[in-house]
Amino acid sequence: MKIEQYISQLLYRHQCVTVPGFGAFLTEIQSAHMHEKTNSFYPPKKLISFNSHLKNNDGLLANHISNIEKTSYENAVASIESEVVIWKSILQVNEKFSLKNIGELSLNSEKNIVFTPSENINYLTESFGLNSFVSPLIKREVAANLEQKMEEVVVSKKSEPIPFIPEETRSRPYLKYAAVFVLALSVAGSIGYKLYQDRIAEETLLVEKAVQKQVQNKIQEATFFIENPIPSVTLTVKEEKLSYHVVAGAFRNEENAEKIYDELIEVGFKARRLAPNKHGLFPVLYGSYATYTEAQQAMRDIHKSVNPDAWLLIKEL
């Protein structure tokens, strides 16, 4: 069975797909970005990484294969185990092999698995139809355009006509007296208009004062009483979802689960007990976290100091 096709299907919908006994493929969203030197634009995508320490079976891959292949959960687990044996054998012989649309796995000098993700597929569904592209460089000729505008302004100023006053008007002295008479009329009219405007402003001010006085009297006489007060508002703060959990173990005996839970609480862990799963096991958690980064750091600390077999569960509880 080629299980890489099922891993590829799950990477579209999940942040972590674990291959029991081998490792886990993790995804992290990378924002859209631009490469300035090449003028290349890249859409947002899911970056795939590999963690060889996450080997415990979380049931995700086996359940998916069971549903697609119409087989039992046990048969799906057995198929995964057989495929993992083949992968390890190929790594020991060839020191590398590829998983279609996922990436290449290889061994370094220290015999640790190194993963190189594939660039052929983007597992971020929101970026469907978006491809990377190269934009041609835009040349801006600001200085040349500015110089052209200045030349146009100079030409337009030179082409403005110069008003010409005929000599004939200077020989008519009666026009001077007519101009004086028109000027006097305009001055008288402006003075009259100014007096009219002042009168209007004065009357307007009196009306405004009267209105303000009536308003103040009404406010002093008024009695305020609210018959139907607005009910008090109760704000509910949305509880932060803790979707990442470090698992201490899953126990078939509930008394053992309760004992481990009490011990973890006593030493300071924010331990939790979960309801029995579909296999009848009672899971006990070291703690739950809001982000994958927090959970990963906590699991590393637990591996070093408490339990090297602790594993990560990604699930909304």
What do you see in this structure?
With 317 residues, this protein is α+β, with helices and mostly antiparallel strands. The chain is 42% helix and 20% strand. It has helices spanning 4-11, 60-69, 73-94, 142-158, 174-221, 254-266, 292-305, and strands at 16-19, 23-30, 33-35, 40-42, 45-51, 96-99, 103-107, 113-117, 133-134, 244-251, 272-273, 282-289, 311-314. A four-stranded antiparallel beta sheet has the order 11-12-10-13. A hairpin with a 4-residue loop joins strand 3 (33-35) and strand 4. The protein is flat and about 105 Å long.
Number of helices: 7
Mean pLDDT: 77
Could you tell me the strand content as a percent range?
Answer: 15-25%
Ranges where pLDDT stays below 50 over 5 or more residues in a row are 222-226
- The order of strands across the largest sheet is 11-12-10-13
Q: Could you give the distance between the termini?
A: 32 Å
Largest sheet: 4 strands, antiparallel
Keywords:
13 strands; alpha+beta; 317 residues; 42% helix; single chain
Short description:
The protein has 317 residues and is an alpha+beta fold. Helix content is 42%, strand content 20%.
Secondary-structure blueprint of this entry?
Elements: H1 4-11, E1 16-19, E2 23-30, E3 33-35, E4 40-42, E5 45-51, H2 60-69, H3 73-94, E6 96-99, E7 103-107, E8 113-117, E9 133-134, H4 142-158, H5 174-221, E10 244-251, H6 254-266, E11 272-273, E12 282-289, H7 292-305, E13 311-314
Antiparallel strand pairs: 1-2, 2-5, 3-4, 4-9, 6-7, 7-8, 10-12, 10-13, 11-12
Helix pairs in contact: 2-3
